[in-house]
Amino acid sequence: MVWKAFFTERSGSTKVPAFPVLRGSEVALTWIGHASFLVQFEDLNAIIDPNFANWLFLLKRLKRPGLKASDLPPIDLVLLTHAHFDHFHKPSLRRLPSPKIAVMPWGCGSLAKRVGFERIVELKWWESFGHGDWKVTLVPGKHWGARTLRDAHRGWGGFVIEHRGRRIYHAGDSAYFDGFTEIGARMKPEISLLPIGAYYPDSFRHVHMGPDEAVRAFRDLKSDWLVPMHYGTFKLSFEEMDEPERWLRELAATERLTKHLRVLEEGVPEKF
């Protein structure tokens, strides 16, 4: 369900977000834009690939971030899927409130120094890190992780968050590959956050998915919910900005998946 009472008045004309109260195993997802999500449990706040930038070099952000960094709750866990600037954005990381632990693929830890984390954890594919009753696992993807042209030693992947019986998968950047079947079989994610943009021309599909392949990946994963991401924020390729969501909705209707599709509005938390 959408958390309807999302905004409360603050002094002046602007508004401050009011996050939902969660109980038991409830989880809330807030799409900040692009691949950035706030994932909230009753006792854990995690943020994935936070990016609040208005510009990425010459790329202008076409939609404002759904949340301001200053309006975030204290962040317990930061997950970074790979070192590309639109996912591993240092200025955004420095603005996070009280970030404690950052988890990222192998070879990325050196980039996170002096950003403000209390602890930095690097994982390889299928390795996990956890504390108490939560755990995160780095899973494979079909992409690449270099920050610059010459640093091919850095890893990449997606994350599965497990907490209180819930399993949420964030694919990071990935092309379609048969690894989605293995991720589904081994991790059994209930909610899958899948990229659907930056797929045209077809040569881009070596490292990204379109809506058609995201639907195929969703079927491989056998999840309950498909949440699209990585579209509509930065123009990274040549499809029309509104095409990925429109095409995904059409495919979901044709393939009788509409009841499994949850298209989030930037800045509006939804309970699952």
Concise description?
By secondary structure, this protein is of the alpha/beta class. The protein has four helices and 17 strands.
Description of the structure:
- The protein is of the alpha/beta class and 272 residues long.
- The protein is built from four helices and 17 strands.
- The protein has a seven-stranded mixed beta sheet with strand order 10-9-8-5-4-3-17, with no helix packed on it. The chain has a six-stranded mixed beta sheet with strand order 11-12-13-14-15-16, covered by helices on one side. Strands 1-2 form a two-stranded antiparallel sheet.
- A hairpin with a 2-residue loop joins β3 (28-33) and β4.
- α2 (179-187) runs parallel beside α3 (211-221).
- It starts with 6 loop residues before the first strand and ends with a strand.
- The relative contact order is 0.16.
- The model is unreliable at 1-14 (pLDDT under 50).
Number of helices: 4
Our count of domains comes out at: 1
Sequence of secondary-structure elements: EEEEEEEEHEEEEEEHEHEHE
The CATH C-level name is: Alpha Beta
Q: Indicate the overall shape.
A: globular
Largest sheet: 7 strands, mixed
Rounded to an integer in angstroms, the radius of gyration calculated over CA atoms is 17 Å
Looking at CATH, which topology would you report?
A: Metallo-beta-lactamase, Chain A
User: Can you give the helix content as a percent range?
Assistant: 10-25%
Fourth-tier CATH superfamily name: Ribonuclease Z/Hydroxyacylglutathione hydrolase-like
Q: Identify low-pLDDT runs.
A: 1-14
- Estimate the mean pLDDT confidence: 93
The CATH architecture is 4-Layer Sandwich
Strand order of the largest sheet: 10-9-8-5-4-3-17
Through-space gap between termini:
7 Å
The beta-strand count equals 17
* SS class: alpha/beta
Report the β-strand fraction as a percent range.
Answer: 25-35%
